């Protein structure tokens, strides 16, 4: 019997899933709400570049075109994704302008599902009783229809569509401000001339200290110079990386080798690992000391009181490693960027009032680069309140999944591209590979209680590290698990020393 598979989203994760399903003989249908594939790479701010070296952000069986660029710009990234889709003939499987507004599991009672001891009741991927009904809407005509399928892959992405703006008490929020407020996404959605004209001549404050915040601040400073400095308003200090390949290579040795992972915390670590990590902790401290000293030498962290209160190793663990735009600190030095720490702030008529600062920061425009709540897209797509609750962890984040793909109690469904990674393309590809092998019967899932034990260990781990599921500090350990499940050898290097000390990169996981 032909099994129907639906993939929701045609960003990199959905496209990779489509390619892997096609390779196993399935005929998936990909629903994409936009009229273009590529997800976040379709439209972003003008200066966006890849911040992962391109060899790490590479489809396993589709190399980048030859060029000198280590960090291609967003147009090159989008062109690369589009040529991947063309090369593997994926486009004809995509229903563009088609939003999946809800998904509903039909055929089995929720009470029965909750009592299952094996995934889907029997441990089999497909069931003859249960199916998913996907309600889809054409985004142009708003006409809707329902598709019934046997398996769903959610590849909705986390960092678009649901912008987050902090809430303020009444009378202290944007409503009292005489200028404009927008989110980084509104700015990213403008065409480049419009964006430049929009900020030209304005006194701008950008809120946040993530990648969008520093990039938009640099763009504003380039347009307005020191006559109208751009204020970057941040509540916590963070480590930023330079755009040099050698530095990235060094980070690889310090943080992404098997030896480095022996020193790191991990979900469900046992006594032996804890003992080893504790014994070797001076080494981890030394790695942090060396890399942080380099960054403090390279950038004026001390001069501007920017030294973060946590170690670089924790930044790697929690996916907080962003590249600072070239020339950023020169613009701080020449006065076109002002850095303003603000643990708390509110609005007034003239601009922003920073707690304990006597004078307001007078501005005409505030851009919130305060991130996204993409988890809501994933949770809200389920009709079932029970499934929504199962997927909601502390702080409304997504509860950890088994192998970061499967919820032990939600049958016939996988979610890819949620866990943070040093290369979201690489981790999405590993997940898709694992999911199709599962569907192909290469391996079976353990019982629901065993899977829940793993997800509980992940919950405890994420609680220890900021609440977000992140793979960079343990990506070898994680990839080992996927490879072992698929019956493949996780040891990918030649020789004991290389296995222990050489950084692992996506190329190690290519299968010939
Ligand atoms: C500007 C920017 C730069 C980045 N740079 C890097 C980088 O250098 N390195 C890195 O590793 N990561 C980077 N990231 C993270 C990035 O999100 C991932 O690398 C990756 O592109 C995400 O792919 P995705 O397919 O998971 O999600 P997305 O690209 O967000 O794609 C999801 C797709 O699903 C569609 N969709 C959503 N909901 C529905 C629905 N209900 N129905 C139908 N379709 C739907 C969306 O329209 C979208 O096309 C960057 C993110 C941004 C925003
Ligand atoms: N490749 C590229 O060039 C590129 C470009 C843009 C974006 N991206 C990626 O896109 C994703 C989203 O980036 P992002 O910058 O939008 O989001 P982000 O990384 O989540 O950063 C959000 C920032 O907003 C701050 N913030 C949140 N709530 C706040 C509040 N109430 N008050 C003050 N500050 C608050 C956070 O501060 P705290 O740190 O204190 O929590 C954080 O600095 C990331 O994965 C990023 O790497 C990549």
Automatic annotation (TrEMBL):
Its cofactor is FAD. One of its GO terms (molecular function) is N,N-dimethylaniline monooxygenase activity. Keywords: FAD, Flavoprotein, Monooxygenase, NADP, Oxidoreductase. It is an enzyme of class 1 (oxidoreductase). InterPro entries: FAD/NAD-bd_sf, Flavin_mOase, Flavin_mOase-like, FMO-like. Signal peptide: none annotated. PROSITE patterns: PROKAR_LIPOPROTEIN. Its EC number is 1.-.-.-. SUPFAM superfamilies: FAD/NAD(P)-binding domain. Belongs to the FMO family. PANTHER family: DIMETHYLANILINE MONOOXYGENASE. This is Flavin-containing monooxygenase. The lineage of its organism: Eukaryota, Viridiplantae, Streptophyta, Embryophyta, Tracheophyta.
